[in-house]
Amino acid sequence: MLNSSLLQLGAALRSKEISSVELTQLYLHRITALNSKLNAYITVNEEMSLAQARAADVQLAQSKTHALTGIPVAQKDIFCAMGWRTTCGSKMLSDFIAPYDAHVIEQFNRVGAVNLGKTNMDEFAMGSSNETSHFGNVKNPWNNNAVPGGSSGGSAAAVSAHLCAAATGTDTGGSIRQPAALCGISGLKPTYGVVSRYGMIAFASSLDQAGPMARSAEDLALLLNVMAGFDERDSTSLQRETEDYTRDLNKPLNGLRIGLPKEFFAAGLSADVAQAIEASIAEYKKLGATVIDISLPNSRLSIPVYYVLAPAEASSNLSRYDGVRYGYRTPEYTNLADMYEKSRAQGFGEEVKRRIMIGTYVLSHGYYDAYYLQAQKIRRLIAQDFVEAFKQCDVIMGPTTPTTAFNLAEKNDDPVQMYLSDIYTIAVNLAGLPGMSIPAGFSGNGLPVGLQIIGNYFDEARMLNVAHQYQQVTDWHTRTPQHIEV
Amino acid sequence: MSLSINDVYKVARLARLGMTEQEAQTAHAQLLNIFGLIAEMQAVDTNGITPMSHAQDISQRLREDRVTEHNQRELFQAAAPQIKKGLYLVPQVIE
Amino acid sequence: MQWEIVIGLEVHTQLSTSSKIFSGASTAFGAEPNTQACAVDLALPGVLPVLNRGAVERAIKFGLAVGAHIAPRSVFSRKNYFYPDLPKGYQISQFDLPIVGQGSLTIQVPTTTAGQTYKKMVRLTRAHLEEDAGKSLHEDFHGMTGIDLNRAGTPLLEIVSEPDMRSAAEAVAYAKMLHTLVRWIGICDGNMQEGSFRCDANVSVRRPGAELGTRREIKNLNSFRFLQQAIEYEAQWQIDTLENGGTIQQATVLFNADIGETRAMRSKEDAHDYRYFPDPDLLPLAIDHEWIEQIRGTLPELPLSKQTRYVADLGLSVYDADTLTSSREMADFFEAALNEVPKEAKLCANWLMGDVSASLNREDRDITQCPISPAQLGGMLKRIADGTISNAAAKEVFKILWNEGGTPDTIIETKGLKQMSDVGAMEAMVDEIIAANPMQVAEYRSGKEKVFGFFVGLAMKASKGKANPAQMNEILKRKLAG
Question: Which helix H or strand E contains C263, and what residues bound it?
Answer without folding.
Answer: strand C261-264
